[in-house]
Amino acid sequence: MIFKTKILNLFFILFVSVYLTLTFELIVNASETQIIKADEIENSAINHLIKELPWNRESLEINVYYKGKDIVLPSGKKELIYKIMNKSQKAGRIPMTLEIRIDDQFKKRIRINTKVLVSQKVIKTIRGVVRGEILSNDEIKIETIKTERPLKNAITNIDSALGYEATRNIS
Asked: pTM to 2 decimals?
């Protein structure tokens, strides 16, 4: 009988020690996490777009639409890899993906929508110009516009536009 109680006591002590060890291990592992804030995701996406797009920083207006929450990840070396899905798209709606890796192991992929507006100087008419009329300083001015589709061949210098004849009515 004494032998059975000693074995039971030994099993009880062993059980309690295993339980406590596992409990403390779970607590330690739970505290070894890192959090990526939603703001960090958005700001990093903006910085990536500024670096990748051909426009200068002052002429860009970038809006990032990430509706997700903060992301909890295990501890380790964090690597955020942003990719522009349509490389030919330089303004307007630009979809992106964020690939999150911890210690060179894939953890998560997130889709991010962005909208990029580019400021561009263009020549605009002050008043309606009739077809056949010659453009002068009285009819045109330089104006900065924000657009999703920047014009490649836009005339940006007033001197370049002076003297041209309007081939159609311009309002």
From this structure: 0.67
